[in-house]
Structure to design on (187 residues):
């Protein structure tokens, strides 16, 4: 047809809906336009629904917001227990075009990280809390489509050092025999 994929899908959806609601050759009733549009919209929504979710991790940042690492398109990342990363999901439709979706974010070990989804739910700020390996972060849409990545929360770098001395004890030097004591060198 030469139209962009979504416009072409809308045309196809309306054609299918019209065929579905068209009266038979014997019937002499008008085509119910509202029913055709409703069915066409349902078909289009089905065609344009997300069929794939892509997950990326943004740069890891410290408490001041300074970037520690660059973004990672891999499905796993290492995060300090005092660091933050943003995970982003791009929902794709059947034609590989980005589309909209509403996601729910979960962590397999809720005490290891905190999750703060964005208003549009397509991204989520992940704060490392407790060192834990293999924390699975999952984004799920209303149709049950999921994407997951793994976060290994590691102990952050030392922020300060404390030196503590133990109790003072008296040490008695071992007794030495005068004959074994070497003579002082003479000049």
């Amino acid at each position: 047809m030469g139209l962009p994929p979504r416009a072409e899908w809308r045309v196809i959806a309306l054609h299918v809906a019209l065929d579905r609601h068209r009266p038979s050759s014997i019937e002499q009733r008008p085509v119910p336009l509202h029913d055709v549009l409703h069915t066409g919209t349902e078909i289009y929504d089905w065609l344009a629904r997300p069929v794939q979710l892509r997950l990326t991790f943004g740069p890891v940042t410290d408490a001041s917001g300074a970037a520690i690492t660059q973004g990672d398109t891999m499905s796993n990342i290492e995060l300090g227990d005092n660091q933050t990363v943003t995970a982003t999901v791009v929902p794709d439709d059947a034609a590989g075009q980005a589309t909209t979706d509403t996601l729910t974010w979960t962590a397999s070990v809720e005490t290891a990280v905190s999750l703060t989804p964005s208003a549009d739910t397509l991204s989520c700020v992940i704060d490392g809390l407790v060192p834990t390996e293999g924390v699975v972060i999952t984004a799920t849409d209303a149709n049950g489509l999921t994407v997951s990545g793994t976060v290994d929360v590691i102990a952050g770098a030392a922020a300060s050092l404390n030196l503590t001395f133990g109790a003072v004890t008296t040490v008695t030097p071992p007794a030495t025999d005068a004959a074994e004591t070497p003579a002082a060198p003479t000049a």
Q: What stands out?
A: The domain at 52-154 is CATH 2.60.40.1080 (Immunoglobulin-like). The longest strand covers residues 132-141.
